[in-house]
Every structure is written in structure tokens, then in C-alpha cells.
What we know:
By secondary structure, this protein is α+β, with helices and mostly antiparallel strands. It is built from two helices and two strands, in the order E-H-H-E. A two-stranded parallel sheet has the order 1-2. The longest helix has 15 residues. The model has no long low-confidence stretch (mean pLDDT 85).
Amino acid sequence: MGFGGGSAIDAGKAIAALMTNEGDVFDYLEVIGRGKPLAKPPLPIIAIPTTAATGAEVTRNAVLAYPSIA
């Protein structure tokens, strides 16, 4: 379940995807990661937004921050 703003909902979506797909989150990140497609569908998620801004509850993408590799 994702409850809160866009960050909480995006975290819930990422966790749901990683629960059914092996590997590290870095394997699935586009641009800075390996960009692998998900082999299995994510677990179902209920998104409950508490703010109106990002629209995270209506997209299949998740925005995640990753520490600098440099």
C-alpha cells in the first residue's frame, strides 16, 4: 500500500515490483541502471494520495533517488 504523497506511493510501487522480481533495484532503473524489464508483474498495490500534485497514483512509473556513483 502506498499512503501519502508521491514519494510514499512511488516507494510502494517499487517495493511491489521488487517483491516478485529477483535482483537489485539497480537492475531495473532506467538511465543509471541496467534498465531490465520486469519479468513478472508486481504485486497489487492500493495507492491512497494525501496530497494533490504528482499524480503518482495514476502512473506505473516510480521516481527513485539513487546515491551518486561518481
